[in-house]
């Protein structure tokens, strides 16, 4: 694949794609389960038969090591297999258990029907799982789908465009390439659902545009996901797992550990553990060719991170080097204050600030003063501390004693809360996101005698019959 950008899709081409997919959805092509299963199989074949090309493209964009690239694609394949295995169960209509005897013959049923023609706007940092992952849910739900990958990852966008056109039904699934003008034009069109992954600023723009058409939106917006080191934490293992999480994609992952709250008296011991594992992860330095250390996505983001390090009042412990190839070494900064430059926004880079705290009360207060994060990572064996975090903080996910492993549990919903997004996807929850629950009843003609009291003229006798039901005893507490 060439390193040049894939040709940007023109506005007239976008309109044609939108109309083609909408017409195809109207005639019901994407609805049969056999069709959905075939398309999911094709998406799986796309990955399996083009693994080297997919790995090479994301390496070209981000310098991502093969192991990280194949791990991302393994997550995608797991989701495809899971959807294929469970498609019939997910799509099966559900009979509703009704309480009142006179409604039991009404055939109350909830049907799982596709939302329609949906739009997925994906990011650059994990282009396959965050663009093609939602596509799995759209296919499983019976939707037609347009995927808009990020223009900041041109090689990955180009390989996805080529392969989706080659492997999937051209009349139901398409890729649109472009930057802000092309995305704005997409959002001017009417969609039946929009799923966006990216920054909070752009997420608000997407949400406002979708509101013009009353289009439902799923937003995954990331945020400053904290690590909490409790007094009883295993510092060595916590350091190893935090540093591993921070190192993924050079820190450019929405669920990367953003910063660490560590007991003040244990900060130095935690740093010693971090340095031990730092030397084990990158024995010859992160810039050595054997380290396979990735790049920051582009020069502006590289400059942003360098500027944050220049402005911090914290103490640099390790790292902080940078080069002209958009790389920054993994960086540890201690004694960071809650109002430091490193705490202004989501870092989205390989910088790990350590914030010393006196106790769990201070930690909870500081977390609650921030915007709601996508995830909180808590290292503890204390059920009491876990319950305090569950009951007194908010986040999309709470993970105990590890980082980023929640992404491997595709049976569980993934999503944020308030500032970090809303709506859910992953596994069955992707299917649910792109599915409308269509209620259905069939009222028997023979039920007419039971319904006689609802008709005009309204009489006192009819009123008293209904009022008696309203006044009936409540269930006991």
From TrEMBL:
Q: Does the keyword Nucleotide-binding apply?
A: no
Which Gene3D superfamilies does its entry note?
Answer: Aldehyde Dehydrogenase, Chain A, domain 1, Aldehyde Dehydrogenase, Chain A, domain 2
Keywords carried by this UniProt record: Oxidoreductase
Q: Which InterPro entries match?
A: Ald_DH/histidinol_DH (IPR016161), Ald_DH_C (IPR016163), Ald_DH_CS_GLU (IPR029510), Ald_DH_N (IPR016162), Aldehyde_DH_dom (IPR015590), Aldehyde_DH_NAD(P) (IPR012394)
Q: Any idea what this protein is called?
A: Aldehyde dehydrogenase
Which PROSITE patterns does the entry mention? ALDEHYDE_DEHYDR_GLU
Q: Which SUPFAM superfamilies match?
A: ALDH-like
Active-site residues per Swiss-Prot or TrEMBL entry: 220, 254
Q: Which residues form a coiled coil?
A: none
**Annotated Gene Ontology MF terms?**
aldehyde dehydrogenase (NAD+) activity
Taking every annotated instance into account, which residue ranges of this chain make up the domain Aldehyde dehydrogenase?
7-438
User: What cellular component terms from Gene Ontology apply here?
Assistant: cytoplasm
Indicate whether Glycoprotein appears among the record's keywords. Answer: no
Q: Look up the record and give one Gene Ontology term from the biological process aspect.
A: aldehyde metabolic process
| Similarity comment | Belongs to the aldehyde dehydrogenase family.
